[in-house]
Amino acid sequence: MRFDIISCQPELLTSPFSHSILKRAQQKGLVEVHIHDLRKYAINKHGQIDDYAFGGGAGMVMMIEPIDKLITELRADRAYDAIIYMTPDGQTLNQKIANQFSLLQNVIILCGHYKGVDERVRQHFVTHEISIGDYVLSGGELGAAVLADAIIRIIPGVLNDESSALTDSFQDGLLAPPVYTRPAEYKGMKVPDILLSGNNPKIEEWRFEQAVERTRQRRPDLLDE
Ligand code: ADE
């Protein structure tokens, strides 16, 4: 899967893709991440990519021309399955949306800044609008990194232990059950006996019950769905 991420603050995106699972996914050739500096497509030599809003009001608006130029250049080389705009008024990201995106081949993610992009970009280029939650970030970059991470980790082959993405919270509509590791007892705090029993069917049953109970307590809305 190929990601082309459009940003006017590309430095914000280097670290998330340079470590751990996201780095390994690229090294394994399963994912390509290309980060594009929108300022290279500025309308003048001052690097201008935004302007005042028509009609007045505080805050700058990202102009259509630099975005059009960059997207047109990208599209000349390949077709894109989705052009995703990161914005607080988009559809709130969840596991199901991440799963759906993970089936795509080529995706553009556009990071907003300031007061957002000229509405014509949204009308004529953008195919999906995604928010990572009901709060406003300084820009779309952190959201883009969150979205890309959620997608990349479920691409087959990215995680070494494939079953581990399938047992994540939300994959089966439940939160994940509690987990423990050594030592079996620490300062009097004990691991549940069942996990040390070696009885795998019973352990799976216990995990399922714990997942349901945790979901009932913390996210009853998930059980309603
Ligand atoms: N840009 C600013 N706030 C955002 C949010 N909550 N989600 C995605 N992109 C954003």
From TrEMBL:
What name has this protein been given in UniProt?
tRNA (guanine-N(1)-)-methyltransferase
Transmembrane spans: none
Name the residues that bind S-adenosyl-L-methionine: G112, I132, G133, D134, Y135, V136, L137
Quaternary state and interactors: Homodimer.
Location (main, coarse): cytoplasm
* A molecular-function term among this protein's GO annotations: tRNA (guanine(37)-N1)-methyltransferase activity
Q: For the tRNA methyltransferase TRMD/TRM10-type domain, which residue ranges apply?
A: 1-224
Keywords from UniProt, A to Z, are: Cytoplasm, Methyltransferase, S-adenosyl-L-methionine, Transferase, tRNA processing
Q: SUPFAM superfamilies per the record?
A: alpha/beta knot
For this record, the Gene Ontology CC terms, alphabetical, are: cytosol
Which reactions is this enzyme annotated as catalysing?
Answer: guanosine(37) in tRNA + S-adenosyl-L-methionine = N(1)-methylguanosine(37) in tRNA + S-adenosyl-L-homocysteine + H(+)
Locations listed in the record: Cytoplasm
Function, as annotated, reads: Specifically methylates guanosine-37 in various tRNAs.
Q: Does the keyword Transferase apply?
A: yes
Family note? Belongs to the RNA methyltransferase TrmD family.
One GO process term, biological-process aspect: tRNA N1-guanine methylation
**Tagged with keyword Hydrolase:** no
Top-tier EC class: transferase
Task: Provide the gene name from the record.
Answer: trmD
Q: Which EC number(s) does the record attach to this protein?
A: 2.1.1.228
